[in-house]
Amino acid sequence: MPTLPKRPMIALAALAALLAAWLGFAAWYDHAQRAGEQPATYSALIERAGRGEIASITFSDDTGHAVATDGTRSRIVMPVTDDLLKELRSHKVAIAFDDGPVGLMAQTVGVLDRAAPFLVVALLVGGLALSGGQFFGMGRATRIRPEDTGTVFADVAGVDEAKEELRETVQFLKDPRRFAMAGARVPKGILLVGPPGTGKTMLAKAAAGEAGVPFFAASGSDFVEMFVGLGAARVRNLFKAARANAPCLLFIDEIDALAGKRGESNSHSEREQTLNQLLVEMDGIVEGGDVVVIAATNRSEMLDAAVLRPGRFDRHIHVSLPDVAGREAILGVHAGRLTLAPDVCARTVARGTPGFSGAELANLANEAALSAARQGRVVVTMADFETAKDRVLMGVERRSLALSAHERRLTAYHEAGHALVSLRCPEADPIHKATIIPRGRALGMVVRLPEGDRVSVSRAKLLADIAVAMAGRAAEEIVFGQDHVTTGAEADFRAATDLARRMVAAWGMSEAIGFVAHAGSEPGVRSERTAWRIDEEIRRITDEGMEHARRLLRSDRTALDSIARALLERETLTGDEITGLADQEVERATEAA
Ligand code: ADP
Ligand code: ZN
Question: Quick one: average pLDDT of 345-354?
Answer without folding.
Answer: 85
